[in-house]
Design brief:
- This protein is mainly β.
- The chain has one helix at about 10-20; strands at about 30, 35-40, 45-50, 55-65, 70, 75, 80-90, 95-105, 110-120.
- It has a domain at about 35-120: Immunoglobulin-like (Sandwich).
- It has a 5-stranded mixed sheet, with no helix packed on it. A 4-stranded antiparallel sheet has the order 1-3-7-5, with no helix packed on it.
- The longest helix has 9 residues, at about 10-20.
Length: about 140
C-alpha cells in the first residue's frame, strides 16, 4: 500500500511522513520531462529545473547517456538554490536511449545523492517514397 502525502493535505501528509508510511521528501529536487523527442543527427536540448536547500554544498549534476546519445557536458556545478539547466545532446541513432541525471552534494554534513532518468526517442522519419500517379 502506498500513500501520496502531497494529496493528503499538509497536516495529514506530515503525519504520514512522521509515521514512516511514506518516504521523506528528497533533499534535491529535479523537475524534468519523462520522455524527450529528438531528431537524429541534430543538436537537441532538454530543460531541467532543480531546487536544493540553501545549506547544500558542493552540488554537482553528473550526466551520462546510453550508446546513441552524445552529451555536450558531463558535469555541471550548481551554485544557486534553484534554477534551470539546458542539457544539450545529439542523438546518433534510434533505439531505447536515456540520459541519466545524478545529483550529488552535501547537506547537513551528510552526502546526498539523487538519480533521475530522461528517456529519449527519435522522431519519426518522414517517408522518402513519393506516390506517383499514372496518367492515361
Amino acid at each position: 500500500m502506498a500513500f501520496n502525502p502531497d494529496q493528503m493535505g499538509f497536516v495529514s501528509g506530515s503525519f504520514a511522513r512522521m509515521a514512516g508510511l511514506t518516504p521523506p521528501k528528497p533533499v534535491f529536487e529535479l523537475d524534468h520531462p519523462a520522455l524527450a523527442r529528438a531528431s537524429i543527427g541534430e543538436n537537441n536540448e532538454v530543460v531541467v529545473n532543480y531546487s536544493m536547500p540553501d545549506s547544500a554544498k558542493d552540488v554537482k549534476l553528473k550526466l551520462s547517456g546510453t550508446r546513441n546519445i552524445e552529451l555536450m557536458q558531463s558535469v555541471i556545478a550548481l551554485e544557486e538554490e534553484e534554477g534551470e539547466i539546458n542539457i544539450a545532446y545529439q542523438l546518433t541513432g534510434s533505439g531505447y536511449d536515456s540520459i541519466t541525471l545524478e545529483l550529488t552534494g552535501e547537506h547537513k554534513g551528510e552526502k546526498v545523492r539523487h538519480v533521475a532518468r530522461i528517456y529519449v526517442r527519435a522522431n519519426k522519419i518522414a517517408s522518402t517514397t513519393t506516390d506517383q500517379v499514372s496518367s492515361r
